[in-house]
Amino acid sequence: MTVQPIRLFGDPVLRTPAVEVTDFDKELRTLVKDLWDSMQNAGGAGLAAPQLGVGLRVFTYHCDGFAGHLVNPTWDVVGEEMQDGPEGCLSIPGMSWDCKRHLHVVAKGWNMHGEPVEVEGTETLARCIQHETDHLDGVLFLDRLDAETRKQAMREIRQSEWFDGTVPTLKQSPHPLFGRSS
Prior knowledge:
It is an enzyme of class 3 (hydrolase). Belongs to the polypeptide deformylase family. Its cofactor is Fe(2+). GO terms for molecular function: metal ion binding; peptide deformylase activity. The structure is a single chain. This protein has 182 residues and is an alpha+beta fold. It has a single domain (12-159), classed as Peptide Deformylase, CATH 3.90.45. It has helices spanning 26-42, 124-136, 147-159, and strands spanning 46-48, 58-63, 66-77, 82-89, 92-102, 104-110, 116-122. The strands form 2 sheets. The protein has a 5-stranded antiparallel beta sheet with strand order 1-2-3-6-7, with helices on both faces. A two-stranded antiparallel sheet has the order 4-5. A hairpin with a 5-residue loop joins strand 6 and strand 7 (116-122). The longest helix has 17 residues, at 26-42.
């Protein structure tokens, strides 16, 4: 087991868009294993490479009875239905707030060996796919909260024991909600 420290809110790597993986090599397989071990150790549903300080488009997931990883993922919405529910993040430990996401998505990417992968997710798995892909774009779920909830979240973060006082600027997600309020 190779558990790595998870970067916390305020670390600039969490706001830096990750680059596409071009080499499906031993280093990538080690990264996927480190992501998996670190996610499992922390009790998370997903973990993206930037959360370990690695600027590559890779994440692992384990939720709703599904487990795996995606390299260079993209996702598409299936249907118009939205979900609004609690969402947390291993980079913002011990906290969660209601966040609006698409109810059903299909993600496409590759596995660590360069073979194509497709993952269809509803509810929690769909939320996880969207959340982890946001990490790869330098976006945190806090960016998706409505203004009042975001203000409350920032207040709670500033009061947390783990927060070091560095408050990054929140930004808008590059993934639109198709005309719906974020």
